[in-house]
Amino acid sequence: MGAVTAFDPVAEHERTRVALEAAIGRLVALTDGIGDLEVPSGVPVWSVGDVGAHLAAVYLAYGAAIPDARSGEATEGIDWDAVLAGRDGTFGERIAAVNALSVGLVAGAERKRLGAILAGRGAAFLRDSAGLAPDTPVPSPWYGPGRTVPLAAATGLMLSETLVHGLDMARGARRPWALTSEEASLVIGQAMVTMMPLALDAEKARGVRIAFDLALKSGPRLAVVVEDGAATVTRDPAPRPYDCRITAAPAAFLLVSFGRMPLWKAIALGRMRAGGRRPWLATRLSELITAP
Q1: Closest Cα to residue 158, out of 197, 190, 117, 203?
Q2: How far apart are CA 155 and CA 16, in angstroms?
Q3: For the chain, how big is the Rg over CA atoms in Å?
Q4: What per-residue confidence (pLDDT) applies to 94?
Q5: What pLDDT, on a 0 to 100 scale, did the predictor assign at position 5?
Q6: What's the pTM?
Q7: What is the DSSP string of the chain?
Q8: Contacts of 181 (CB under 8 A, 6+ apart)
Q9: pLDDT tens string 124-161
């Protein structure tokens, strides 16, 4: 079953903040070095500039939510009721609607300042969230009415968006982009514990009962249990029986989860493998819990 490991949530959150600051710096340097932001990116139908504008919107959304998290009171931030009017639906539908809106928030001549906008908004998030506990609730209405996520998850999500969409921009611009195992481990440990249950396709999961043991090499271990339309994810769980064990390199798991690397390629490269009593169930995880 493997040994039960313990982690320090405060120390890991601080490491995530350091990784995010470094990743934002790389992203800004990448953006400033791209001559034509309108070339196609690694995201279908989005240009490199569209991806950067989406990231700027993500930074703005979480940055605007931090004063609410700090004070516990509403501020004059983004009017999400107006932004999301008429766009309620499933988790995936809601996120798709927000993503479609986000690319237009930095447009026209303003895109010439995209690097500076990303730098300023990223720095504002880190500055305003400094000193807050990792479990501080951060308002996240784009995930659903009244929804909050812990600050640790918000920081991990900011890192995830920066790493994955930085790759999308770099692929479009034909530039190098680094995504390390340590960074991916931080995303998985900080963000995925919160986000995987939210991203569950409840209809597909109806009547399903599967327990996955997700073991990341030199990273966290997650118990992902899908049971009749709901999912629970436990970080570094106590030993228990599982139906399927998935062993993966953190960076490969992150890229496969977000559709940036085919599953067959991760397997062929020896970066993912399935085991346990019912290893053939491994592909069900990506079918039940999908990235929008």
Answers
A1: 190
A2: 7
A3: 19
A4: 74
A5: 53
A6: 0.91
A7: --------HHHHHHHHHHHHHHHHHHHHHHHHT-S-TTSB-SSTT-BHHHHHHHHHHHHHHHHHHHHHHHHSS--S---HHHHTTT---SHHHHHHHHHHHHTTSS-GGGGGGHHHHHHHHHHHHHHHHTT--TT-EEE-GGGSTT-EEEHHHHHHHHHHHHHHHHHHHHHHHT------HHHHHHHIIIIIHHHHHHTB-HHHHTT-EEEEEEEETTS-EEEEEEETTEEEEEESPPP---SEEEEE-HHHHHHHHTTSS-HHHHHHTTSEEEESS-GGGHHHHHHHB---
A8: 217, 218, 219, 249, 250, 251
A9: 999 999 999 999 999 988 887 788 999 999 999 999 99
Pairing of strands 137-139, 148-150: antiparallel
d(CA 51, CA 47): 6
107-134 mean pLDDT: 94
CA 19 to chain centroid, in Å, comes to 14
Contact call for residues 211 and 205 (beta carbons, < 8 A): no
Per-residue pLDDT band for 2 (boundaries 50, 70, 90) equals very low
pLDDT score at 56: 94
Residue 76 has pLDDT above 70, yes or no: no
Backbone angles phi, psi at 209, to 5 degrees: -135, 105
Query: Residue 261: its pLDDT value, please?
Result: 94
- Spatial distance between the Cα atoms of 150 and 152, rounded to a whole number of angstroms: 5
